[in-house]
Amino acid sequence: MSEQPLHRDTLAVRAAAERSQYGENSEALYLTSGYVQPSAEAAARRFAGDEDGFTYGRYGNPTVASFEQRLAALEGAEACISTASGMSAILMMCMGLLKAGDHVVCSRSMFGSTIKLIGSDLAKFGVESSFVPQTDLAAWKAAIQPNTRLLFAETPTNPLTEVCDIRALADLAHNAGALLCVDNCFATPALQQPIALGADIVMHSGTKYLDGQGRVMAGALCSTQERVTKVFLPVLKSAGMTLAPFNAWVVLKGLETLDIRMRAQSERALGLARWLEAHPSVERVYYPGLPSHPQHQLALAQQSGNGGAVLSFVVKAADADQARARAFHVLDSLKVMSLSTNLGDTKTLMAHPASTSHGRLTEAQRQDAGVVQGLIRVAVGLEHLNDIQADLDRGLSSL
Known about the structure:
The chain is α/β, with parallel strands linked by helices. Helix content is 39%, strand content 15%. Helix 5 (112-121) links the parallel strand 2 (103-107) and strand 3.
């Protein structure tokens, strides 16, 4: 009788590199930049890639390997490679897959730094890009060119929580001979597994929910073993966007509570979204768990949980200047929750995307992404829902 595969809840606390000779139950933190080799011949084989074994801190580390094994297991991927931040993971992917003359199609609703990296920074090296509406499948298809090598989407998006059809985008990409990468930061593998829906690569900013307490920065790509080993690892070795062992250990331990945290925070987010939708000072709420969300049914089909822990809302205002002033008033009225551009913390974090995360974009790019001046993003934490509502109501009710 064959053994049953382990459930994701079990993998979240058990998947890791083998214990050392000391038999530690909690995964060890290996702080070392170099490794003693058993022989000159073994060292030669390991540096050549002909034998498994750690050689240098920039190339690999047992603690980092444990994090990679655990995240790959949760995402249902063959392998994972980690980086120093989420943005460095995107850079690694682009450096590994693309060359001058290649073309990328991206959602125009992606994280502002992603748009800047692909649309501006990589353009200097000859990589072409097109940005399309996240939910318009026809626009994605029309944007594909003979030199398109990659489709890149995040779902739900930051900050409007737009949801794309992963299966449909995967079919488009594969029919064009391209790959699909999905930024899974908001949903995490606790709520969504893009590879099971046809994606080729899953990208993470481990800084967010994978850590879960806002302590360290980390990034990762999950994909096939061959792509990780032959495409991404050579870039890591050359460019050095290496994840520090301590950061890897922190995120590794964060993964143990990921499912519990995401479901508890998503439950609070749904309650807050419903409350905001009924508030007289709120014009609109963006949250996939609400029936009013344009992709509500799609979100229910490809995500578990209530819709994630992030929502956004727009304050009522007569014009853009008043909207910005009113959004600032709400944020400046907070006394309990945190005004912070990060997300994924156990503490509720609120931000004004138009002046922070999307502040480097042009006004036209912000308008295309729907990031208006009255928009406030809320990354819901683990505080009591009544306290979150009361803290927001202080500003909203005094507009």
